[in-house]
């Protein structure tokens, strides 16, 4: 499944609704969006040159491309089939 602007909007809305504060947020997103890989990390772990696909209060969403042997971050929605949630430092 590829990432769409609709999916990004849905994830932003869900995270802004309080899910970001839950320890199992990535698991809950996987249940809500079967087939889409989700991962969470500190936004500081994301290379600064990579621009997020979407942002919200306390987080930024980055694309994840799992089509090759190793998963890789991507700034292009067209090549993203998963989402990495970068949690901003002040929200850790």
TrEMBL record:
Domain DUF6129: 29-74
Species: Uliginosibacterium paludis
Xref: InterPro entries: DUF6129 (IPR046132)
Protein name (Swiss-Prot/TrEMBL): DUF6129 family protein
